[in-house]
Amino acid sequence: MSDRGEIENVLNRYSIAYDDNDMAEMADTFTDDAVLTMRIADGDLIGPFEGKEAIMKLMVDSLASQTDQRRHVTTNLAVRREDGRSAAVSSYLTLISVENGAARVLSTARYDDELRREDDGAWRFTKRHIQLDLPY
To answer: Where in this chain does the record put each SnoaL-like domain (predicted)?
Structure first.
C-alpha cells in the first residue's frame, strides 16, 4: 500500500473504531505522545489532551455519554506534506447520529492531523485538531 493509502487508512480506522466502540483499535491509531485539541464553533480551545492515555479517556467518556449510534464520515482528504516519516493531513468530517429509526447530521468538522511512521512501520497520529462547526 502507498504511504497515502496507509495514512488514509489511519483516519478511517479511527472513525470506524469510534463508531464500533473499539477502543483498542482506536488507541492503536495514536502515538504514545500524541496530542489532541478541539474547538466547537468559535468557542474556546478544548485541551490539549496530552498522551494516548488522556486522549483515550476523552473518547471513552464521550462514548459513555451517547445513546445514539454515531457514524463518522471522513472525506476530502488532502495530504499537505509527506516525507516518508511524517505527514500533515487535512480532511472533513460529517458526523451522523442514528437513533429511534432516524438519521440526522449532528455537525460537520475539519480535522488537521500530523502523523508519524513508527518503528513498527505503522502510521499513527501525533497531533489531531478537531474544528467542529456546530455543537453536537
So the answer is: 2-129
- Cis, peptide link before residue 48, omega less than 30° from 0: yes
Domain boundaries, the chain: 3-132
DSSP H helices, 20-93, are: 23-27, 52-64
pTM for the full model? 0.93
Note the pLDDT tens digit of each residue in 43-61. 999 999 999 999 999 999 9
Q: For residues 126 and 113, what is the distance between their CA atoms, to the nearest angstrom?
A: 8
CATH class of 3-132: alpha beta
Q: Are 123 and 10 in contact (CB under 8 A)?
A: yes
Dihedral Cα 84, 88, 91, 97, nearest 10 deg? 90
